[in-house]
Amino acid sequence: MSPSRSKLAVCCLYCIGAMFGRSPATSAAQSTDELEAARFRQVLEAVGDENHDGIIERVEFAKFLQRNTTNLVQQLQQSAPGLSVSIDPVAFQRTIDGIARQIFNKVNRDNDAGIDIKELNQFEEAELPWPFKGSVKDLLPPPPAGMAPQEQPKPVLDVISDWISVRKSFLDSKDIGNPATFALTGYGKDQDGLKTGQHRTSWQLQGAISLQPLGHVVTNFLGNMTATWNPLIVLEANVNSDITNNTDTIVHRVGVEGTLFDESTVNQGSWSHNYILTLDYTTDRQYAVDMLGGTVQYSPDKLSLGIGRYLPIIEPVMYYRWRPYVGFTYANVLDPAENPKLQAFSNYVNFFTRAGLELAIWSRLKITPEFALYQELVNQQDAHVLFDITGRLALDEKDRASVQISYERGQKAPSFQSQDVVSFGLGIKL
Amino acid sequence: MAMNDIVLFRLEVLIETLVGKQVDVTKNPKLGEPPIGFDDVYLHGVFLVFLNENQYGFSDILKKPLTKNDFDGSTKINDLVATMLKISVVKSVDDYRTKMTERVRLGLRSIISQLASPPIAEDRIIPTHPLSEYLDVHDDSVLLKLQLALNQGLRKYLLTPMATDDLSGTVLDVQTNVVNNTIA
């Protein structure tokens, strides 16, 4: 066996089944028809079915509206204290009759004598004009508990994923979207570089959690361009149990991401442009290292080239999509702590270019090679290469849990220590 | 056609416009998987803006704009349709027909006024008057221009493109034919 370094990682599967499932079915013993009939009886009673014919007639509805104007008149009088508010009862009655007629024309499509159960939903949703506010439903008593249609609540993970994104890395978080991974690693007997007393088993966590508040759209930006921007808060960790090898990195980012494109040319398959701008605070697991800096990253969309959209290789079995990136990272090393690589310089500026490819086979099996090239622009001005390939099998329909095997080789920023890692693991993605 | 079918069709038009070719969405695919296959960068960037705008999007029926929390690559297209209908001002096909009638009336009036030779003011076009009063309907090139203008201007609404046969009778007849093509 060659003396090359290798790691073998074994990971535990972790899955909270209930979180992935649908919410419990409603305990509804009553059928929808029964609920509707009960609601119609309730509405009929509230409006006042004077002739007991089982439908809501326009005259009955006008009287119902009239009864509900009492509060409006009082509000009007209160809103103008000191002024004498007088209402012409004939004109007011005519207004109310007009509103009733307007609602009936809209809702009573079959033009029969009145509103029946088939038209109940539209009747309740009908918008009321001034002097009312809202819809007819707002004047009616609320349906008793159990009678209102019950919306199925979103599964917990769906709600969390609305606001939080969990991926392996923030900067390539959304395209090839490799999941956050936790792995237990066993070092073989040929593993180089183990220090005296170092355990032959270790754990490794690679993940990025980003908070995603809602974004904004700016039109007519720089002429015909449309720009979007979303604020970002990110915590990114690449840590392991072996704190002696100086590979721990924790990055805190605050910034914006967004897109810039020309709406008028989009249907001609034009390019659009995605950017990320962040201020970064980088440290290690013990928060001994202090580095302040920033990252700028650019990535285009071009659907016809497969950037941002799957294109077929063997339809319908195999598809690919990919995404290139370029960017700069700057950091001022305030405290390198015990990290000898960081002690060698006081700041760094790295140019990077990366490309991530995703091959999808039968939709659940994904193979994602990534290639990155880093160029140090100050200090030693060396170039560094990092290659990573991951095979991943999704365990659920939404690809939130997966088993994966990955191989990573090369030098990883910012300290550019050599990596040569094979790992099996469980991926979690939100 | 039900309201969700109409919204699904309009989504298909939007996706085909962005992609530049036909995309079959009848098998309820996820937005992030073939045949749609957008990644989340694109979905939450360009696609989201286009969903909420007017040219190909749904600003005419949405009470509030969609957000990136409403969908991602794992969302099936029918679920996106359901989300849109939940925040839509249009609850039924009848409501949609009313909306389309007004939209088509204005669109048709504008197109006729521009195609008329010499051009005439929009408010001079009376729905109950024959189309031939404003356009030379015996000239095939004029009819073709009208057909193209309708099919392009109302593309996101038209379930089936307008044929020249639909462009006869009164202005109101043409309007009714166009509206019918946006519903079924």
Would you spell out the secondary-structure blueprint of this structure?
The complex is a heterodimer of chains A (430) and B (184).
Chain A (H helix, E strand, L loop, with lengths): L6 E4 L6 H4 L11 H16 L8 E2 H10 L2 H10 L9 H19 L6 E2 L4 H6 L30 H8 E4 L12 E8 L13 E11 L4 E6 L3 E16 L8 E14 L9 E12 L6 E12 L9 E4 L3 E18 L4 H4 L3 E15 L3 E12 L6 E12 L6 E12 L4 E12 L2
Parallel strand pairs in A: 1-18
Antiparallel strand pairs in A: 1-5, 2-3, 4-6, 5-6, 5-18, 6-8, 7-8, 8-9, 9-10, 10-11, 11-13, 12-13, 13-14, 14-15, 15-16, 16-17, 17-18
Chain B lengths: L2 H17 L20 H13 L24 H10 L6 H23 L24 H14 L17 H13 L1
Number of strands of chain B: 0
Radius of gyration of chain B: 18 Å
- CATH class of the largest domain in chain A equals Mainly Beta
Strand content of chain A: 35-45%
Summed up, the domain count of chain B is 2
| Silhouette of chain A | elongated
Main sheet of chain B, how many strands, which sense, barrel? none
Q: What is the number of domains of chain A? A: 2
State the low-pLDDT regions of chain A, or none. Answer: 1-30
- Provide the helix percentage of chain A: 10-25%
Indicate the CATH topology of the largest domain in chain A. Porin
Instruction: Outline the biggest β-sheet of chain A.
Output: 16 strands, mixed
